[in-house]
Amino acid sequence: MRFQLTEEQRALRDGTRKLLDGRFGRDRLRAAVDEPALDRALWRELGAAGFFALRLPEEAGGVGLGLPEAVLVFEEAGRALLPGPLVACELLAGVVDGVAAGERTAGLCEGSAEEVLWEHPADCDELILVEGGGRDARDAPGRAEGVYRSAPDRVAWTPFASVDPLTPLARVTDFPRGAPLGGPDPSRLRREAALLTAAQQVGSAVRTVEAAVGHARERTQFGVPIGSFQAVKHLCAQMLVRAEMARSAVYAAAVTEGALDVTGAKLLADEAAVRNARDCLQVHGGMGFTWEAEVHLHLKRAWLRAARWGVAAEAEEALAADLID
């Protein structure tokens, strides 16, 4: 079995990177921090480019691609630190009207989470709640399982402090459930949400490797680049290894779509994104804490994603249980 990207997949990845470089570059990223509201014009541009309709059939107006291609696109989104309910809109395109074209946005919440958190509450036109379909004990038999929708103005919520300035959060305190939303399967939604989140983590991990290596080449101490010092070389090499291991796991999980494969991929991707951002910050020294370096934004986003759609403790329990079985 070969996992080399095809020419079409490379073109998709390169085209996505070019699109995001042009529409959401460094200056736009900094402006978004000061004004974190969703950029509707950018959202519609992404929709027009097929960003959210990647996996919809062509006869339904989509691009007709698969999960591996969606993973490549989301890796680039993670690399650019693109904000917004990206995972929710990708998964709900074709389910919620207007989402595929970028004309409307939808949020996605885990109903069984200890804190039911809602990303970008002020910018969502629909909110979808996923209950059941997970491996957690709280999803045990007897608990309702399904996918429910609600208009945002019917949902009771309170503000929730977010570590990431580009991802506003709310804690849902009451979600009036109507009839289950037909179509999406809770298990599949959870699995794909975890995988696309992992893909974003991989993109962030790769970007921080590039940032650390770039800084280590330019920054000098004692008359030489700091990258010439053994300790910095080893730090950067470990970052690269983490990023590549996570990328391989995520690509493989996109092909197999196995629940445990996705669980392992998310675990590796979370670790790569968080630890790489920390190491990148160390390479940057004190500069890493300032607004001149974007590494602190990668670290904050990596922390937030690591707490979404499967945390490390749950993943480790699931993988250990599978080994024992």
From TrEMBL:
Its cofactor is FAD. Keywords: FAD, Flavoprotein, Oxidoreductase. Residues 195-302 form the Acyl-CoA dehydrogenase/oxidase C-terminal domain. Pfam families: Acyl-CoA_dh_1 (PF00441), Acyl-CoA_dh_N (PF02771). Transmembrane segments: none annotated. Gene3D superfamilies: Acyl-CoA dehydrogenase/oxidase, N-terminal domain, Butyryl-CoA Dehydrogenase, subunit A, domain 3. GO terms for molecular function: acyl-CoA dehydrogenase activity; flavin adenine dinucleotide binding. Belongs to the acyl-CoA dehydrogenase family. This is Acyl-CoA dehydrogenase. It comes from Streptomyces lydicus.
